[in-house]
Amino acid sequence: MTTIYRYCPRCAQPLQTRTEGGFARQACADAQCGFVWWDNPTPVVAAVVEHDGEVVLARNKLWTHRFFGLVTGFLERNELPHEAVLREVEEELGLKGETATLIGHYSFERMNQLIIAYHVPARGEIRLGEELAEYIRVPPEKARYWPAATGFALRDWLLSRGFDPQPIEMPARRKA
Predict the structure, then answer these.
(1) Where does the Nudix hydrolase domain start and stop, copy by copy (predicted)?
(2) Which residues sit opposite 33 in a β-bridge?
(3) Could you report the per-residue pLDDT of 61-91, keeping only the tens digit for each?
(4) How far apart are CA 29 and CA 139, in angstroms?
(5) In which domain, by residue range, is 24 found?
(6) pTM: predicted TM-score of the whole model, two decimal places
(7) What are the φ/ψ torsions at residue 101 (nearest 5 degrees)?
(8) CATH of the domain at 149
(9) pLDDT (0 to 100) of residue 175
(10) CB of 135 within 8 A of CB of 126?
């Protein structure tokens, strides 16, 4: 989730909205300070994991709905995205990824993330990592996608394989 600053983290002056780099940004009111909160998206990798001819979808322990999605994770400092996605597949599913083939990149505005999605054929026995509650296996011809960043990655991969994926309806989000 994006942090919202009200005061400058350098000099404690109130931030104000002004145009920087062609976008409205929060910036320090003190011109000598010069702080600008760029609010750049966080890069996240996602894997369409293919195991024994099926797509493996997982449910994070923190998700309040029983929803299954792609394995995702953050890049570590100095890590390449294709290395990160193989690491995440091994950490979260206990599987050894054979390759990581780029599907595409997708904006996930709600979390201010840039999703870099890969197809990862994997081998081994599934052993869930500490972040996952459960998983399901879906034959590609029966897979459906959700209307968000990682869902679009799954859709695009399925289309590239000659399937005609259909969208699923997402549960309504509760307002806080």
Answers:
(1) 40-160
(2) none
(3) 999 889 999 999 999 999 999 999 999 999 9
(4) 56
(5) 1-39
(6) 0.86
(7) -110, 125
(8) 3.90.79.10
(9) 56
(10) yes
CB-based contact 152:167 (threshold 8 Å): no
- pLDDT tens readout for residues 124-153: 999 999 999 999 999 999 999 999 999 999
Strand-strand pairing, 101-108 and 132-138? unpaired
Count how many domains the chain has. 2
Distance CA 78, CA 72 (A): 18
Q: List the 36-37 sheet strands across, edge first.
A: 15-20, 23-28, 36-37
24-48 pLDDT, tens digit each: 999 999 989 999 999 899 999 999 9
Both tokens assigned to 22: 């062609």
Alpha helices by DSSP H, listed for 16-135, are 81-93
